[in-house]
Amino acid sequence: MAYEIITDSASNLTKDLLDKYNLHMISYHITLNGSDFLCYDPERDYAEAGKHFYDSMREGASVSTSLVNTAACEDFFTPFLEEGKDIIFVGISSGLSGTVQAARIAAEDLMEDYPERKIIVIDSMGASLGEGLLVIGLSERRAEGMTIEEAALWYEEHKMSMNHIFTVDDLKYLKKGGRISAAAAIVGSILSIKPVLLASDEGKIVSFCNSRGRKKALKEIAEQTIKRIVDPEDQVIAIAHCDAPDDAEYVASLVREACPVKDVIIRYYDICTGTHVGPGTVAIFFMGQDRMLDPASDAFLTQAIRSLKETGSRIPAGISAGVTAGVTQAKQLGEKIPATVKQATQQISEKLPVRRNTGKANG
Question: Which candidate, 198, 202, 173, 204, places its Cα nearest to that of 188?
């Protein structure tokens, strides 16, 4: 029986890939400075739209996104069911969005109206081209003759091997989306720390390590790829960037020098998920070792302190006040803080010397 493969615009697939692999896409909506539009529009140049969007974010544009709700899923799925086709839907990680849950509710409702049809909803546990590469693989399995159940099982068996590793240029977007605490964002910004993040075993964004400076962070994501990738000669890996094409090419060159990868796809990061990581983000996606477990919620702060200690750096004056303010803000937002304000400031003062303002001029 024929079946269709539907994904969401978070999968970062462009029109040429959707057409090539006979895929369908349901789009998120985004609001930019009060104007609402689709994240994916087949009539719009993908790269041009991406550059305009991330430039707008840099200029301070007001941006918000809305998930694909149950009604939208039902409207999108129904025409295929009426044609007598079954459906596999792959959505962005449930650790990042409620879209998969909305699709599951829609599927349950629709299968009551179309009891002879099958709708399988897959939680990708990923996003961007990490989701998209496996959706392409799903299409290839269909072309090989796999049934809908076999293809869905293939996705489930491989999704935790799809690694997502990335770095951001400005921590404020992760803080705004609740991906890191206010305390972590303040500490990281003051200390010029660029985090290396990944998709965890729970499909959430978590901190892996921290680098002093942009270049080191880019090298780190390349090195982690080289370390974790499996059978690179058989893989097409992908890099998505939020208007940082030179940095994306740099990461690709480092990986190519060390790994005989089959090919590297470089694309603008889809603007829906890109909203939550911000301009300058560079992410790499590949099949490798299974994902790491979620680290502790205060890992970002701990690793920031450790990395500074290893380099002998001093914490700038006022850092304790910064952490105190950050933790206070986080508590006001209802975020879970693993340590009290006192513990957070003590952790810093005990592990690193603090440069204090004596009121004397240098010289």
Answer: 173
Select from 192, 191, 172, 190 the least CA-distant residue to 182. 172
* Residue 322 within any structural domain of the chain: no
| Average pLDDT of the chain, as a whole number | 83
* 306 compared with 39, residue with greater pLDDT: 39
Give me the sheet containing 86-91, strands edge to edge: 24-26, 3-8, 86-91, 119-123
Report yes or no: 2 and 151 within 8 Å, Cβ to Cβ.
Answer: no
- Cα separation, 136 vs 211, in Å, equals 33
Give the number of domains in the chain.
1
Range of the domain at 67: 3-161
- Phi and psi, residue 361, nearest 5°: -75, 150
* Residue 207 forms part of a structural domain: no
66/255: higher pLDDT: 255
Which alpha helices (DSSP H) does 114-194 contain, by range?
A: 128-143, 148-158, 172-176, 182-190
The rounded distance, in Å, linking the Cα atoms of 206 and 201 is 10
pLDDT in tens, 283-333: 999 999 877 654 443 444 455 445 545 555 554 444 444 444 444 444 444
Q: Is residue 72 over pLDDT 70?
A: yes
Q: Does 94 reside within a domain?
A: yes
Distance (Å, whole) CA 197 – CA 186: 17
Per-residue pLDDT at 337 exceeds 70: no
104 located within any domain: yes
Q: Tell which residue, 235, 281, 343, has the closest CA to residue 50.
A: 281
Q: How confident is the model at residue 194 (pLDDT cuts 50, 70, 90)?
A: confident
CATH of the domain at 28: 3.40.50.10170
**Residues in the chain, total:** 363
